[in-house]
Every structure is written in C-alpha cells, then in structure tokens.
C-alpha cells in the first residue's frame, strides 16, 4: 500500500511533506517520494531532508494508491506529466491530494469543475481555480470525492488524517 508524494526539487515546504508522511506511515502506508531530481532534497525551512525514491518521469500510477503533491512553489503548475498523473489517479478512483499552493493543480488537471477545493489564498492560485471551474472554499481541508486539498502547513496534520480516512474506507 504505497502513496506517492511529489516534491519540488528546491524549496518544498518541510511540514507539508513531513507531517502527512508521518501520519500515513503511522497508519501503515508506505510513502514513496518523487521529484524531478534524485537524491536528497532539503525543505524550504531546512528542517527536513527528503530522499527521492523515483524520478517523476518514471512514475507509473498503477503502482500507487494515491498521489500527494506537496506545496512550496508553483513548479508543477501546468506540468504535463503531473497533470496526466492527476487525471490517471482520478480516473482510477485513487486519491489525488494537494496542499498549499499546489492545491491549484487538481483544478488545472480539469478534475474540479463545479467541485469545492481549497488552496493557499494566493491571487494567482485563486484565479487558476476559478478559470478551471473549481469552487474555492476558505477551509483548512476540503474533501471532494477522491480529491483532498489543504490550504497550508497549519493544516498538514488534518490533511494527513483525511488522506488516511480516504485510503482506508
């Protein structure tokens, strides 16, 4: 039972990676970390060093129960590979989760038309959600079918618990 966590190669948000990872691992899930660079990557606050297990371009959605996109930057906005993976996970009824600024990505993938989601309330993120038919809700965590979004680091624990609840249903 593995969940894929996608981090940016430079400046992912430490607690948005480490807290949900801990929550999932404590619930018995394996967390596999992906990025565009292999090796060890440091979080934005230099509190976490993540070991990247697989390169983004080598990911096969069939190998995982879910995809979680860690926040920190807009690096993966409109990234064709990330959008394709979001669509594949979603179409299979698997978890698609994103926290902070990455919350706009499920909308960019076309998954959120007429559905609620949350994101760090950045002007560009809110506009991206609106342009892609999503409905922004000012809550820490929002669950819409198999898409779970969270607005930032303060919601990381609740976000992790929501992912476990979905994955163990």
UniProtKB/TrEMBL annotation:
<protein>
    <submittedName>
        <fullName>Glutamine amidotransferase 1 super family</fullName>
    </submittedName>
</protein>
<dbReference type="InterPro" id="IPR002818">
    <property type="entry name" value="DJ-1/PfpI"/>
</dbReference>
<feature type="domain" description="DJ-1/PfpI">
    <location>
        <begin position="3"/>
        <end position="165"/>
    </location>
</feature>
<dbReference type="InterPro" id="IPR050325">
    <property type="entry name" value="Prot/Nucl_acid_deglycase"/>
</dbReference>
<dbReference type="Pfam" id="PF01965">
    <property type="entry name" value="DJ-1_PfpI"/>
</dbReference>
<keyword id="KW-0315">Glutamine amidotransferase</keyword>
<dbReference type="GO" id="GO:0016740">
    <property type="term" value="F:transferase activity"/>
</dbReference>
<dbReference type="GO" id="GO:0005737">
    <property type="term" value="C:cytoplasm"/>
</dbReference>
<dbReference type="InterPro" id="IPR029062">
    <property type="entry name" value="Class_I_gatase-like"/>
</dbReference>
């Amino acid at each position: 039972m593995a969940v894929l966590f996608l981090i940016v190669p430079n400046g992912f948000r430490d607690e948005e990676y480490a807290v949900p990872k801990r929550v999932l691992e404590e619930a018995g899930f394996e967390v596999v970390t992906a990025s565009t660079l292999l090796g060890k990557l440091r979080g934005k606050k230099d509190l976490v060093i993540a070991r990247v297990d697989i390169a983004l371009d080598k990911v096969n959605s069939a190998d995982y129960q879910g995809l979680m996109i860690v926040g920190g930057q807009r690096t993966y906005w409109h990234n064709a590979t990330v959008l394709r993976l979001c669509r594949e996970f979603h179409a299979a009824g698997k978890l698609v989760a994103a926290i902070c600024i990455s919350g706009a990505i499920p909308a960019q993938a076309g998954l959120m038309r007429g559905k609620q989601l949350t994101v760090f309330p950045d002007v560009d993120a809110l506009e991206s959600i609106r342009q892609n038919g999503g409905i922004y809700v000012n809550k820490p965590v929002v669950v819409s079918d198999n898409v779970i979004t969270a607005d930032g680091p303060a919601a990381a624990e609740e976000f992790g618990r929501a992912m476990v609840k979905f994955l163990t249903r």
